[in-house]
Amino acid sequence: MGLVGQNDKKGLRGSLCRRAGIHGGLAVLVAALAAAALASGCARPSAQVSPAPGQQRLQAPPARSLDSYADRLRTSYAQRTAAARRWGLERVPLTPPPPPATKPKVTARPGFEVEHQGDWDLPPVFTTVPTKDKVVFLTIDDGAEKDPAFLRMMSDLKIPYTAFLTNYLIEGDYDYFRRMQASGVTLNNHTLRHLYLPGLSYEEQRREICDMQGIMRKEFGKRPRMFRPPYGNYNQDTLRAAKSCGIEYVPIWNEEVHVDHWEFREDDQRLRPGDIVLTHFRGPGEWNGTMIDDMRQFLDHVTAKGFAVARLEDYL
Ligand SMILES: [Zn+2]
Questions:
Q1: What radius of gyration, in Å, describes the C-alpha atoms of the chain?
Q2: How remote is the CA of residue 157 from the centroid of ligand 1, in Å?
Q3: How many A from CA of 36 to the centre of ligand 1?
Q4: Are residues 86 and 220 in the same domain?
Q5: 77 part of a folded domain
Q6: Does residue 16 sit in helix, strand or coil?
Q7: Which range marks the domain in which residue 31 is found?
Q8: Measured in angstroms, how far is the CA atom of residue 237 from the centroid of ligand 1?
Q9: What's the number of domains the chain is made of?
Q10: 153 and 36 co-located in one domain
């Protein structure tokens, strides 16, 4: 049976925008709403006799609610601008659209199917979710680095992400990942020991994947729906084993972010709507920077290209 390999180490380096200054499209929206509020009756009428005490005219409710909506937008934009400054971002991350009412149908990326993919209903391997929304999805793998500042940064900026965890890297500190989970992050399966799965038998692969399902249910209270094979390498046995213990999706990635550069699967080195982006829980011991530096690398590029970061689970 065929082996599907990922040349995730061969990607080309992307150029990064380094323009200084914080900006954002929401400011325009806030200004437009404020203008609409004024035009629709919030402005004080001129050349009128003041009403007697207790007889003041009430402002029209629609204009008032529009006004307070504009206020809320302005406040949340101000908060995000302040958070972006606090964490040293060059730009204020864009707000994603609401989750789609109808979930897109996710199928295996062409060329990434295994034999009997369709007739055995095996979980699809994909790198991009079909959507027209200008969003990308952040996924973070392994679990070696457990930086409390990273959890604060992501909560502060309200950036969603999805974790794929390997047991041998997290078993010393499940609590760190429980805190991550409590902040709204979905924890998923990245095997027990991070082995090259196509080199293992079906039964060995089942242990790597399905025993991790059991550990995750015990430690985090939920059996994951998503699984990512180490290095993006899999074969038909991998998908059969994953399906046998409840895996529905096998997202891999279209871009990988390192602390100092990007790697793209596509030759044109552009982000596409629905792309899944990979990075790792790594710290200064493994690359030249912190998780915070890595997130700056990710967020500043995504924002500069006009994309928001959305929650992968909202689209599946
Ligand atoms: Zn990994």
A1: 24
A2: 25
A3: 50
A4: no
A5: yes
A6: coil
A7: 25-42+58-90
A8: 19
A9: 2
A10: no
- Residue 155 CA to residue 159 CA, distance in Å, equals 7
- Are residue 186 and residue 235 in the same domain, yes or no? yes
Q: How far is the CA of 189 from the centre of ligand 1 (A)?
A: 10
Q: Is residue 230 part of a domain?
A: yes
Task: Tell me: do 108 and 179 sit in the same domain.
Answer: yes
Query: 62 and 156: one domain?
Result: no
Q: What phi and psi values does residue 279 have, to the nearest 5 degrees?
A: -145, -175
Distance from Cα 2 to the centre of ligand 1, integer Å:
21
CA 230 to ligand 1 centroid distance, Å: 5
- Averaged over successive runs of 10 residues, the pLDDT of the chain (316 residues) comes to 45 35 41 41 39 50 71 83 97 96 96 97 98 98 97 97 98 98 98 98 98 98 98 98 98 97 96 98 95 97 98 98
Looking at the structure, tell me whether residues 128 and 161 fall in a common domain: yes
The DSSP code sequence of 165-224 is E-HHHHTT-HHHHHHHHHTTPEEEE--SS---GGGS-HHHHHHHHHHHHHHHHHHHS---
CA of 83 to the centre of ligand 1 (A): 30
Distance (Å) from CA 190 to ligand 1 centroid: 7
Calculate how far, in angstroms, residue 140's C-alpha sits from the geometric centre of ligand 1.
9
